[in-house]
Amino acid sequence: MDENIFAQLKMADATVLDAAEEKVDCSNCGRRRRYFCYACRNYVNGLEKVMPTVKLPIKIIIIKHRQELDSKSTAIHAALLAPDDCQIYTFPNIPACHPEKDLVIFPSKDSMTVDEWAKRVAVAKLAADVTISKQGYAAGHSGHVIFIDSTWNQIHPIINSPQLSALPKIALKNYETQFWRPNGSRRDASCLATIEAVYYFLREYHSIYLGLEYKGEYDNLLMIFKYMYLKIRDYHDGGDYLKAYKT
Ligand SMILES: [Zn+2]
User: Fold this and answer.
1) How many angstroms is it from 95 CA to the middle of ligand 1?
2) Distance between CA atoms of residues 184 and 71, nearest Å
3) Is 17 strand, coil or helix?
4) Is the sign of the CA dihedral 114, 116, 120, 126 positive or negative?
5) Least confident of 76-85, 166-175, 227-236
6) What percent of the chain has pLDDT over 90?
């Protein structure tokens, strides 16, 4: 495992999470939680007062499979850290989607890269005689970007659902996950945790679609992820046999 990736990020001090020393009752559902309640999607132990909020340049929707354990999902990190721009739905409860402007992040043979998507939008705007800003491909995209938070086995009913099947698909560049794995296997190293996929998509969107220099604007999205990663690594002293964390 290589934690150097975290050292390069412009991130708020995650040790504020250390203030949550014990589990307390979630103010909404009463269940015992330490950092946040993954059922209610709120912080506990007063962490909402000290955690940063990240403003996203595009609205995102995360669709979870109902069998995906909430306690192992990193989707909630996005909902906690970018509450104004991220919504989570549990399949089959999916919102209506719009193929002309919404996209789904999903690798397949008909997926576009972010670069191809940006060029396609630019061509369409030229054809429609819409002025493109010098900064890049206009001021931003008005649709939603949809992420699927599930195992590979559960993903097909979601991607083939009537709402998502007609959406253009985007494939990210290749990245290596830092997600803690039960067996230290590198086999799935390219299979990103949901919060990593959100983060890397936003970086590509920022630099390629918006044409802006990336200055760490979304690094705080990985704040809880990094904190849990370091905690689990320290606990397991080396990290080859990591289990997904529990809050
Ligand atoms: Zn709760």
Assistant:
1) 23
2) 20
3) helix
4) positive
5) 227-236
6) 61
